[in-house]
Design brief:
Elements (H helix, E strand, L loop, with lengths): L2 E8 L5 H17 L3 E8 L6 E8 L2 H13 L2 H5 L8 E5 L5
Antiparallel strand pairs: 1-3, 1-4, 2-3
């Protein structure tokens, strides 16, 4: 079943532009990964250090397999210096209401 995933990054405000440049480098691999339908990036208007990824995946299992691959490749060490806090994942099922 398809799933929408939000990933919230709390970025050091002075590094937000650098972080967005890093995402520009990283996201082509994400978008090409098996099961990824789309990834969009949003930046909070009032707090530029809050950056959100809204991802659509074929399933939660696809996203978790992707995340395991990212973890194995050392993504934490890559993004860690930019962050003011831990990234937060949320998984959503679309409701037909």
């Amino acid at each position: 079943m398809a799933v929408t995933v939000t990933l919230t990054f709390s970025v050091k405000p002075e590094r937000a532009e650098e972080f967005k440049s890093l995402l520009k480098e990283l996201l082509p691999d994400t978008r090409a990964y098996d099961g990824c339908r789309s990834v969009d990036v949003y930046q909070d208007q009032d707090n530029p250090g809050l950056i959100y990824l809204v991802e659509n995946w074929e399933s939660k299992a696809h996203q978790q397999k992707y995340q395991a691959w990212r973890d194995e490749t050392g993504i934490a060490e890559t993004v860690g210096p930019f962050l003011a806090g831990e990234p937060k994942f949320n998984y959503f099922d679309k409701q037909d209401i």
